[in-house]
Amino acid sequence: MKKNPKGIVDPRALATYIKSHKELHDKVASYVKGPSVLDIGCGLGCILNILRQKHSDWYLVGVDPNYTDLEIESLKNSVVFYQQGFDHIQLDIKFNTVICTEVLEHVEFSDDTVKQLTEYLLPDGRLIITVPNENYSKHHGRTKWSTEKLRKYFNGIGNETEFEIGKRYKGMVIDK
């Protein structure tokens, strides 16, 4: 995201990002069940902001290696944030929902990654994952994800619901 010399995100760049990802964020937020939510790779905090506006009493936690990217000022006092990378998350609480959107393509993925995502879920918890569609031209990251690859790694965790958001994203909702 474009920043000025003081390290502050350009408001126009932020507005463009939020607008271009609105459908994704709204869709993911619609699948969340509370009252406790962990957003791994929360980035700017857009999904947490949607949830905070709808559920002021929910316990919301965001984890991202770039805490300074958090640009939604209203969240800074109403959401717990940890500045940690995906491989370094250490929390001693379980959540109703764990969200992981647009992260998996950036990490070295293995069976341990699946275990890490599910270890923070309550026994009846929900995992929500999204990745860029395999053929999306602006794809970036280490790993391309096909629907078959999602099924391979996440099969057997619970009841799965697959979804797509336009041509850009695909995802799964998994209920343990």
Describe this structure in words.
By secondary structure, the protein is α/β, with parallel strands linked by helices. The chain has a single domain (11-175), classed as Vaccinia Virus protein VP39 (Rossmann fold), CATH 3.40.50.150. 26% of the residues lie in helices and 26% in strands. It has five helices and seven strands; from the N terminus they run ααβαβββαβαββ. It has a seven-stranded mixed β-sheet, sandwiched between helices. Helix 2 (22-31) crosses helix 3 (46-54). It is globular and about 40 Å long.
Draw up the topology in text.
Blueprint (H helix, E strand, L loop, with lengths): L10 H10 L1 H10 L4 E5 L5 H9 L4 E5 L16 E3 L12 E7 L9 H8 L2 E12 L14 H8 L4 E7 L3 E7 L1
Parallel strand pairs: 1-2, 1-4, 2-3, 4-5
Antiparallel strand pairs: 5-7, 6-7
Helix pairs in contact: 2-3
Percent helix range: 25-40%
Distance between the termini: 35 Å
Tally of extended strands?
7
User: Architecture, CATH level 2?
Assistant: 3-Layer(aba) Sandwich
What spatial form do the alpha-carbon principal axes imply? globular
Our count of domains comes out at 1
**pLDDT below 50 for ≥5 consecutive residues: which ranges?**
none
What is the arithmetic mean of pLDDT?
Answer: 84
Summarize the structure.
This protein is an alpha/beta fold and 176 residues long.
List keywords for this structure.
7 strands; alpha/beta; 176 residues; 5 helices; seven-stranded mixed sheet; Rossmann fold
